[in-house]
Amino acid sequence: MANKSNVLHSLMLIFITWRGSKRCCAMTVDPPEDLAVLDSGRLGQMQITWNPPGSLTKMTKCLPQYQLEYFNTYKNNWETLRTPMRTYSTQFDPSKDVHIRVYTILNGECTNNTMVMSKNCTETILKPPSTGVLDAEAEAFICVYHNMENLECSWTRSLKTPPSALQNLYFWHKSLDQAVECPSYLLSGGIRKGCNFPEKSLPEFTDIYFCVNGSSRDGPLKATFFSLQIQNQVKVTAPDKLHLQTSSDTELEFHWENPAGRLPAHCLEWEVRHRHVGADGKISLNHIHTEKPRLTLPFSNSSERNCFQVRSRLNSYCVDQSFWSDWSHETCHPDLENRESTLGPEMNFVSIYIYIAVVIIVILVVSLCVWAAVNMRKSGPQKKVDSLLPKLLTNNLTRRVSKIYSGKKICTDVVV
Ligand SMILES: *[C@@H]1O[C@H](CO)[C@@H](O)[C@H](O)[C@H]1NC(C)=O
Ligand SMILES: *[C@@H]1O[C@H](CO)[C@@H](O)[C@H](O)[C@H]1NC(C)=O
Ligand SMILES: *[C@@H]1O[C@H](CO)[C@@H](O)[C@H](O)[C@H]1NC(C)=O
Ligand SMILES: *[C@@H]1O[C@H](CO)[C@@H](O)[C@H](O)[C@H]1NC(C)=O
Question: Which CA distances in Å does 125 have to 170, 396, 400?
Answer without folding.
Answer: 25, 107, 99
